[in-house]
Specification:
Layout: H1 32-43, H2 46-95, H3 103-110, H4 119-141, H5 144-147, H6 150-183, H7 189-197, H8 209-215
Helix pairs in contact: 1-2, 2-4, 2-6, 2-7, 3-4
Membrane topology: Single-pass membrane protein
Subcellular location: Membrane
Keywords: Membrane, Transmembrane, Transmembrane helix
Amino acid sequence: MANELDEMSGPVNAAGRDINVIEKQLPVRVGFGSTLFEILLWLCGILPGIIFLFMKIGAKNYFMQLQQKIQADASTIDNYLEQRVQILQNVAPLVNKAIDLDKDVMKSVAAFRGGHLSEEARNTVSRDLDRSFGRLFPQVEAYPELKAHKAIADAMQQNDYLQREITAARSLYNDTVNQWNADVFSWPTKQIVAARAGYTTRIPFTASAETKARARETFF
């Protein structure tokens, strides 16, 4: 039998294909078949019904714990973002005479004070930080006396480190979200519990259009 997907003979799209994260949460639903399944378990005897009842309790507890894991992963991202905010706030006064930073961006960044952020707010803060650092450090490169400043040099190293940590934290967050999205459709126990609780799928980290456009630029 021939392979359904043959990477040797195509078809291929020579122009390539860009992808985007779909901003949509899918509700978890079950039909009458799931209800019938539960009824049949009880009709087969009290023991199968009780066993499945405890399985549903375990699934409910599992989802509650997984939600806390998602919150913890999101909080880790926030912590790294807050550290980048502190770096920016500490470095900006040292170079304010040479660099005219975007005041609106700085106000948005300065408003960040930790705590829980929505995905939209987290992406906004991250985008504003990238924009500020994107204007800050290239300007520093143009001023040898600034580039040689120890505090600024340390800040540049810390920023590089935090960027890598944020990327790793986002990957961890996406892994947990992917686990949630798979489990809520795991029939019968988890899907039935998820549907009865009104759960939906979750949206993984989304890069802004500005960030994706910058990634296509020539850096060297």
